[in-house]
Amino acid sequence: MPDPGHPGTATTLADAAYPGPVKLAPGEWLARQSAHVRRVDEAAAGYLSRRSRGAKHPVDDFLWIYFRFRPGQLRRWHPGAGVTLTQAADSEHAGRRHYQVAGGDVRLDVPGFLAERGSGVRYVRDLLAATASRPPRFGCFGLHEWAMVYRSPEVRHPWPLRLGAAGTDAVVESRPLRCTHYDAFRFFTPQASGRNELTPTLELRPTLEQPGCLHAGMDLYKWAYTLTPAIASELVMDCFEHARRAREVDMRASPYDLRDLGYEPIPIETAAGRAEYVAAQQDLAGEAAALRSRLLRACDDLLAGHPQPALAAAPN
């Protein structure tokens, strides 16, 4: 069961139901804003330093490079829907898109936000609900990273393969590939794609996404920031930190040797390594379930009183 004190299960005003009568005095919202900025600055410091030097890190840089949300964007604090910032007419929020000013107070213009981005909210909401409705599957053993280099002269990261190219290919051939996640599957080599039990596509994402998948948990960060500024920044950052933990497990179980970076491998080519991976996967799935529930609630709160038909198109 997730630890109630863990950041992935923290309870904040992000969990308040829309349109709850939540009003924050200047001291409250300024303190939350400052705390969020410090949290992001700490998380981004290593990446920004490496970027200035032209250096790369396969674990810590992934969220900044793969996902379309830069440190400066994440750094902007948003209280989320249903929260009014009092005495904020001169704040940066007053001039931001999707905010409205009434007297000296500022809050999100929810009807205006939904008029423009309601289809994205509905898509995310339906995907989260569908994923949460399925039992988790823990039989992939992180082989997606192995499948991305299977029988290929190229690797995705400039680090050596622990078992070499031939050893890596042998591991892929020794076990069934059971990837359910489109954004992992689409990077499989052509030879590996044909070995997978399923053929995940973007259109099939709502049908195949399942809560045991590390990448489905990492994507909670993407869905949270996609709905900015309607989602409280504390929840977005909780999802970021979960994705960072999942990425570490992902790469420790990968075919790459990252010991010079301080990461001991999870040797999924062995029975003990597979058991270690499943245990880590189950812990992360518990964290992700709590975050998914919070995001789903935020989407339902946003859509309350503004019913729309379910849409099949993914948000841009």
Looking at this protein, list some descriptive labels.
disordered N terminus; single chain; two-stranded antiparallel sheet; 316 residues; globular; mainly alpha; two-stranded parallel sheet; 49% helix
Write the layout of secondary structure elements.
Elements: E1 22-24, H1 26-53, H2 62-66, H3 71-75, E2 83-85, E3 99-102, E4 105-108, H4 110-132, H5 144-147, H6 164-174, H7 182-185, H8 190-193, H9 205-208, H10 214-226, H11 233-252, H12 271-303
Helix pairs in contact: 4-12, 10-11, 10-12, 11-12
**Shape assignment:** globular
- What fraction, in percent, of the residue positions are helical? 40-55%
N to C succession of SSEs? EHHHEEEHHHHHHHHH
Work out the helix count: 12
Assembly category: single chain
Tally the beta strands: 4
Largest sheet: 2 strands, parallel
Report the β-strand fraction as a percent range: under 5%
Secondary structural class: mainly alpha
